[in-house]
């Protein structure tokens, strides 16, 4: 009976939310259109061209057996540290390099390939999703804050936070695994890794053109879904602001900001960042009432939490593979707390000393950011990204039409 009432209340809640959203679109058509265009521009200029190459290469590396090869080599590292197979090292590296939600897509793909158990997939997805360095250094540090030196402390805190989440999530599902046969990490063996690579390639032996076409179609299809979520949450965030719900809900964050000893004026920027990290980071950078360190701590939390937009993308990807979303959400909260804490702890050694009084000790990685390399990379992505997006959308349409016109008997 209680379950029946719970299901009815869920139905009423979802129906009411959808009705309110539709009513808001009718009441604020101009603002909704502007927010939709803003989300579309972000996807068109940045998200699609930056993620597509990683998605395609990842699909090909899995098909060719390279990921299985790396998995054997990385098994002695990943299994003791994070309780995941060595293939998790590939998902971890690609997730850091390409950003949200690459880690979730690769985790789902490896799970579908039966290279991960359900618990291992939940663990792996929790710490392989992060912001990429180009976004942290180019968009946030150089673009929003106009301060490239800030990128080092944000990036180090972000990735240290992710590692910390992985070390904690290694205990996730440990009781269930105790009932199963315990798998010991295989020792490093290059010959065995090469044999694994060859066996995997033989299992997926298809013409190169077929593999490449499938990789492009799968990648573009995922990116179309991501674009839809970006536009949806951009509009949703704007409508909450127009209906003054942001002002009503943001004060709930003030108590948490007080506990963290952060200015209350960051409530609305942080609330916006809970929905969409780009808008939230930009609003935090424009808060004059907060000091730079306070803004950096708040930005670290927003970047690590990922925003409901990113989490909806990940939830959709994980749901297709029947992987639970709850561990990922808990991990994002942990990542936000860890990243913000590391930013506070590392502020003096990584920012005050390097940007202030010790220029000779600035790492080479920071010199690149200081010279504007990351900012230039971000500018080039925005300039030529739409062209790459258009070309691959045309290629995707051609591949879909070609696949539909082929006889069903052909493979």
UniProtKB/TrEMBL annotation:
<dbReference type="InterPro" id="IPR011642">
    <property type="entry name" value="Gate_dom"/>
</dbReference>
<feature type="transmembrane region" description="Helical">
    <location>
        <begin position="329"/>
        <end position="347"/>
    </location>
</feature>
<feature type="transmembrane region" description="Helical">
    <location>
        <begin position="296"/>
        <end position="317"/>
    </location>
</feature>
<keyword id="KW-1133">Transmembrane helix</keyword>
<feature type="transmembrane region" description="Helical">
    <location>
        <begin position="384"/>
        <end position="401"/>
    </location>
</feature>
<dbReference type="InterPro" id="IPR014226">
    <property type="entry name" value="Spore_IM_YlbJ"/>
</dbReference>
<protein>
    <submittedName>
        <fullName>Sporulation integral membrane protein YlbJ</fullName>
    </submittedName>
</protein>
<feature type="transmembrane region" description="Helical">
    <location>
        <begin position="223"/>
        <end position="243"/>
    </location>
</feature>
<feature type="transmembrane region" description="Helical">
    <location>
        <begin position="51"/>
        <end position="74"/>
    </location>
</feature>
<keyword id="KW-0472">Membrane</keyword>
<feature type="transmembrane region" description="Helical">
    <location>
        <begin position="150"/>
        <end position="169"/>
    </location>
</feature>
<feature type="transmembrane region" description="Helical">
    <location>
        <begin position="81"/>
        <end position="100"/>
    </location>
</feature>
<dbReference type="Pfam" id="PF07670">
    <property type="entry name" value="Gate"/>
</dbReference>
<feature type="domain" description="Nucleoside transporter/FeoB GTPase Gate">
    <location>
        <begin position="46"/>
        <end position="143"/>
    </location>
</feature>
<feature type="domain" description="Nucleoside transporter/FeoB GTPase Gate">
    <location>
        <begin position="223"/>
        <end position="319"/>
    </location>
</feature>
<keyword id="KW-0812">Transmembrane</keyword>
